Amino acid sequence: MDDVARTMREVEPEPCAGVPTDPSDGALGRASRLVPAEVEQNRGEGSRSLANPLDRISKRLIDLLQIDGRTSYATLAKEVGLSEAAVRHRVQRLIDHKVMQIVAVTDPVAVGFARQAMVGITASGDLRAIADRIASMQEAEYVVICAGSFDILTELVCEDDDHLLRLINDEIRAIDGVTGTEAFLYLKLSKQTYTWGTR
Description:
alpha+beta; four-stranded antiparallel beta sheet; two-stranded antiparallel ribbon; disordered N terminus
């Protein structure tokens, strides 16, 4: 009977680096929002997909964490009807497979970055290699290969106009294969959200 009981008893997974193990710390700890992995994933890194599609419980956990990434494991467990250990394991698995990230989303202006811009880039040759070069820049928070008038779009966060000019002129335009750039300066951020839920 002891062997059967040990087999049936849920075994709590080992704590994972970077993920709080104290339920009172929440699934996020000090940060405040959840961002799907593709928002910040570099094009060259790829992603490790889950073997099976997300089930109802995993989707519910994502929905809850998108609303408040600081939600405790205890609260999540009550919402989905699992133990805290099982919830912790699921959240870590979603992070490990790059389905989601839990990060602090800041206001760039409030932390010293007064100039934001979307830059459209035309290029020839290997677009993936060019996108990877741009993605390696610290100021590039979003890089995407696209169809249409531009081959690549990147969102840049800079300290001021001089910083933006140096980045475009000295770094982006210097990349082999880049044939042109057009910058769209942000005047006012009307909406920014990552709470689009799951399907």
